[in-house]
Amino acid sequence: MAHPQQPGADAPPVIEMLGIVKRFPGVVANDGIDLVVLRGEIHALLGENGAGKSTLMNVLFGLYRPDEGVIRVDGKPAAFAGPRQAVGAGLGMVHQHFMLIPRFSVTENVILGAEGNSTLHLDRDAAEQTVGALAEEYGLRVDPRAKLADLPVGMQQRVEILRALYQGSRTLILDEPTALLTPQEVDELYAVLHRLREGGGTIIFITHKLREVAAISDRVTVIRRGKTVGTRITKETTAPELAELMVGREVILRVERPPASPGEPVLVAENLVVTGSRGEPALRGLDLTLRRGEILGICGVEGNGQTELVETLAGLRRPDSGRVRLKDQDVTGQDPIALRRAGLSYIPEDRHNRGLVLDFPLTENVLLGNTEAAAFSRGWRILRGALDAITRRLMRVFDVRAPSPQTHARALSGGNQQKLIIARELHREPDALLAAQPTRGVDVGAIEFVHRQLVRERDQGRGVLLISFDLDEILDLSDRILVLFGGRIVGEFVSGRVSRTELGLRMGGRGEEERGGVAVAD
Amino acid sequence: MDDFFSFDLLTATLRFSAPLIFAAMGGLLCERAGVMNIALEGFMLVGAFAAAAGTYYAETPFAGLVAGMAAAMLAATIHAFWCVTLRGDQIVAGTAINLLGVGIPAFLLQRIWGTPGGSPQVERLPGIGAGLNVLVPVALVLVPIVHYVVYQTRAGLRIQAAGEHPRAAASVGIDVVRYRYACVIASGALAGLGGAYLSIGDLSQYTNNMAAGRGFIAIAAVIFGNWTPFGTLGATLLFGAAQATRVQVQALGLNVAPDLIGALPYLLTLIVITGLVRRSDPPAGLGKHATAE
Amino acid sequence: MGLPSRISGLLPALLSSLAAVTVALLAGAMVIVFTGDDPVEAYRALFSGAFGGRRPIAETLVAATPLICGGLAFAVAAKAGMFNIGIEGQLLVAGLASGLVGAYAWNLPASIYLPLGVLSAMAAGGIWGAIPGVLKARFGSHEVITTIMLNYLAERLINYVISTEERFPVDPRSQSTQPVDPEARLPNLLDGTRLHWGFVLALVAAVVLWYVLFRTTLGYRVRAVGLSRGAAAYAGIPWGRTIVLAMVASGVLAGLAGAGQTLGLQGRHINLSAGYGFTAIAVGLVGRNHPVGVVGAGILFGAITSGATRMQNTAGTSKEIVQVLQGLVILSVAAFAAAGHFRLGQRLSARFGGGSAGRASGNDRSSGVGMGPEIEPQPGPPVL
Asked: Model's pTM, two decimal places?
């Protein structure tokens, strides 16, 4: 698919990626992507998580070799063997997670790897002057002598930009550059980018936020499920059109789902405030109520507080303030064992590091979190016979395909691993079930199976909290939908009465600006 | 008490500290590049033995010095191969090198001279008076050199980057593997010097297991010195002084248990690494491999 | 009950250990050739020195006793993800404790005195092992450094006690405690040999450890913490308390080794580091940190130790080759483990893909100490 209308067709293309295909075993991450970036423009690359943006950039930088497709930089065919060559060709990457060394000064970070021609002695003063002058030139106010660790995040990002400029980059690629910034820092970043463009630089701005596309870009290319779905001139398009392109229309799976009959509240969170792992505010006063007999879907783009929300509800993270109630009990800050006893089950988003001990056999994975249960142990003694029998039964009922209960979890496919976790968590017959990304990275058959299980649990009067980045999954399964953005619920909808576009807009942060803009459409 | 805090105590401190300084500077380079090095003990033993053997055959201690460094560098290359290339467990590999460092010299000793406990007497490195040999000033000069290399050179910046954040270093085109190899081998050369100090500087023969844990103390000194050359120097002097005091106390027959004084450095190290006294600040990428996804 | 699959699970481990030992022995043979001896003759002498008759076999088991206990000590710590280099110190402190208790010559019957001696050793070892556990759980201090420091502290402490005859029942001239009261000694097991009941205790310890590790919820928690700290947190298993527990158990087992040497073999604590604590690391690694494997590896290393004297006498190969062989075995095991992980890593990346399609799973490579290719710096206490 070629670029439809070229704006300022006089500007030559800097980067042309045509028909890029990159396959991984079992997954096609890029399935024919076209991206043409013109000299002197700010080009937004818009797509949901997993749409293939990062893979595409890794292909461009030579970290992955594309299976098909053509790459041209400045009109010349380019197949970089690694980032070093890409940098040599004038490309610069500003990573989402900065590739900077906290203990180093700004100057040391900038010059690292290209310290100048002196072989032995490091002339810090000269380097500081060079870096200072460069910073001045582009209006990147930052003290070249400051220690990186002492700088706020926005300032650190400038160091990354400065480094790219120092290395001679004329085309800058920024990967979700606003993810960790405050609104003021975002404005300053925009100013810097505009200045760079005026100086003849080209910028690729990777994002999933519609507002940013409108605010900063000249053109935008939207990708979805590994394919380019369109390139637009930003001024000539609308947010709804982009939202539609980004999330698509087609429905992949349909689950038989009779109407819900919600009962009393089973899991309630009030005004949760949680700090994330990097010390950033992750949840900023979140409320939600999960009722028996309903599936409550939480949609949103990754990194808006989902992980922190789930871990707080599961007892793995302590909230700074706010309360969590499970049935009639206040369970705020209780540990996972107490929560399980109180009737909570939890399907974690990270199968490999949370949900399973990969080097344990299936039996011992069934035991995970259940060691205190009477069915599995007497005192300290593990009831191996019972454990084996229960594991076999669960394998049969939940269709976990493995040679034997003694097989190690590592040897199972992703789908079977996930089924095992679900079997274990449902075996407890919980009152409330947290399901985080329950179908991430599993095959289609397993997805259907997991979806049916969740609906069945709902119909048996349990409350199911479904957190997913996959909008289709949310729409297919949920009875009610909450939109999570920036650590807050910014929209509540009843399933079937909300358009995908509307959800896409909310997920992209639109409507957040209008204060109190929580649209309840019931 | 005049006897106690004497010139003798000072020279004895230097005498005990010098081999620790060599090994600790090697350990510092290695850890700054991100490789945990508990193999220093083995490097020292191999160096000490080769120095004695080299002196024995070439009949000059300077040849022994070269032989000691070369042998320890060979051992270090093996260590680097296991830790960096094979990406094996750095502690396991270090443990093996240490066992080999005890075993191979003892084995060869028996083989070459047929003497189980130690080598024959060989010529010593020249002294500079006060019971000190020529390597003592070398050790003291080494510290500012290492400081200069780490903080004032391009290589030093890259070594630090490899140890702090190997992926970031690799992302700007630094060959992390090469820098790590270089630092591990350099640590072998320096620990080998420390070993040679023991066999042909302080004594004039190799005796079995003569490093007697100095390689481990050197690592403690690096931690104690918070991975800075001058801090590490201070720690080695402290450890050396504790040892000198122990000997002094014994010699003067004072009513203090020398072993309790000797225990102080270890106790202090234990306290220091809790981070309660002062923030312990190891290289952030210590033990991490460069290309781990 | 799943027997075939369990055998097939153990078989690769056994084969890999055997292969590693074989490679190390071949490398050792090259060393022997290099020094001008005949490796076949040397190894034959080694073998007959270790197994050629009742006395040699007894001596092999005598040498294996502290190695089995020490190997179990290494294994239990490793199961929790801790690399215990401090077995030597724990063993020596324990030996001293039981030596002192036995040397006081309290007027007690053997039925009380002997258990008291053994328990004092286990308690001393347990305390010495608990310290690095607590330091890691509380402050994140790397156990490798703390255990090394504790080894030297143990050495100084023992030096002090052994040289302070006015306060303790010791004999500074022979650098040992006074002889242990006969009522406190571990009896001889086989007449005309030095084999003592410490060997039986070591086997009992192996069985008990196997049972606790693989049949109880306690052992389950230890193994879960060692294999995946994230999954353990998910299950509500407290990381800090569990690693302290494992380190105490490790120290207790090292203490048992000390008791065997002091109350069994020597009849007093001798102030001499025989390096069992370091060989124990090799035993644990070769035995794959499994109690059964550790018993086998302990006997193997005991055989090499006891057969070496014979080898030196008949084949002329210096018995110092033993330590060389130990070092080579560890290197070889480490190389095999690294290669295994390398293959595994390739399989995994093939299955889960890369980039946005799948995420690198962090815990894949850190499964247990000694088998993983890297020690991850601990990111401090978990979130709760």
From this structure: 0.83
